[in-house]
Structure to design on (279 residues):
């Protein structure tokens, strides 16, 4: 068979997903295509009708349709239901089932270089409380880490993540200043906001003076590849984790759901980095 895959969103012209899934198809020795379906809000129903007609095997959904897509699905994975967002749809015998692979993809991307990092002793600081933070927070709950504190500019938005909390994990809601003061408590710091993204690459969300020795600092921003926060962390001797790794692993998880192929993609992190550098 030849897999029909794709991405819906707006704008998606610069998406790396076609490149990523071409790597996966080649690695799995499968035939297929991954097309971009860009369209504004009015066009969404007709785009989805077209995908039904061509019997698409699976697709990703990105901004601004991750929530609205839920109305068009036949079934929802329980975590996608809890998050109220879907980034991956699988066609199961004509029925569309929605999943959210961002959070688990993030966790996989961290476990690959740091297999011992996430356990019931681990303390995490999550910076941000948007869509990406919600998925990552939920996935960290499933790792049963000891603590995930959340620091966000708008405290109410951070509080809204508490509906995703599990009993085993504690969470305090902090200001950025409070987080900076108690930074040495954290084994992993996850930056999920757009702060530091091009063209504002000189911005850094918090100061790292109190960083714990051996902490891992992670930034989901991948433009630039190494954000100012990560450069700062590296210069202080911390271990760092880049955003493009999450991009790759959320794709790996989607590909797994579409094809049932479990691929080892670790070697593609560096290849994706070269692609991002335009090499
Ligand atoms: P995404 O889906 O990419 O996570 P989002 O849902 O729009 O995007 O969330 C953006 C996150 O970045 C939020 O946590 C937002 O903080 P607020 O909840 O206070 O809006 C955060 N963010 C964006 N710009 C920021 C800035 N300049 N300083 C601090 N936080 C910022």
């Amino acid at each position: 068979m030849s897999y029909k895959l794709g991405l819906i969103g707006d704008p998606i012209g610069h998406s790396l997903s076609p490149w990523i899934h071409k790597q996966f198809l080649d690695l799995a020795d499968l035939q297929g295509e991954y097309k971009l379906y860009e369209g504004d809000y009015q066009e969404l129903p007709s785009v989805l009708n077209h995908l039904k007609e061509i019997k698409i095997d699976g697709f990703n959904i990105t901004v601004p349709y991750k929530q609205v897509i839920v109305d068009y699905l036949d079934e929802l994975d329980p975590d996608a239901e809890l998050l109220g967002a879907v980034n991956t749809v699988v066609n199961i015998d004509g029925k569309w089932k929605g999943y959210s692979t961002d959070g688990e993809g993030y966790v996989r991307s961290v476990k690959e270089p740091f297999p011992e990092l996430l356990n019931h002793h681990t303390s995490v600081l999550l910076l941000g409380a948007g869509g990406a933070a919600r998925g990552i927070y939920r996935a960290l709950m499933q790792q049963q880490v000891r603590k995930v504190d959340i620091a966000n500019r708008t405290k109410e938005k951070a509080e809204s993540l508490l509906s995703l909390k599990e009993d085993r994990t504690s969470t305090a809601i902090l200001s950025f200043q409070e987080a900076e003061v108690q930074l040495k408590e954290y084994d992993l710091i996850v930056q999920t906001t757009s702060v530091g993204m091009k063209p504002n690459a000189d911005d850094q969300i918090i100061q790292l003076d109190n960083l714990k020795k051996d902490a891992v600092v992670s930034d989901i921003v991948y433009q630039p590849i190494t954000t100012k926060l990560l450069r700062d962390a590296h210069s202080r001797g911390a271990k760092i984790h880049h955003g493009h790794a999450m991009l790759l692993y959320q794709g790996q998880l989607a590909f797994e759901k579409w094809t049932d192929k479990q691929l080892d993609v670790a070697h593609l992190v560096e290849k994706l980095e070269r692609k991002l550098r335009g090499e």
The first strand starts at residue 2 and ends at 9. DSSP finds ten helices and twelve strands in the chain.
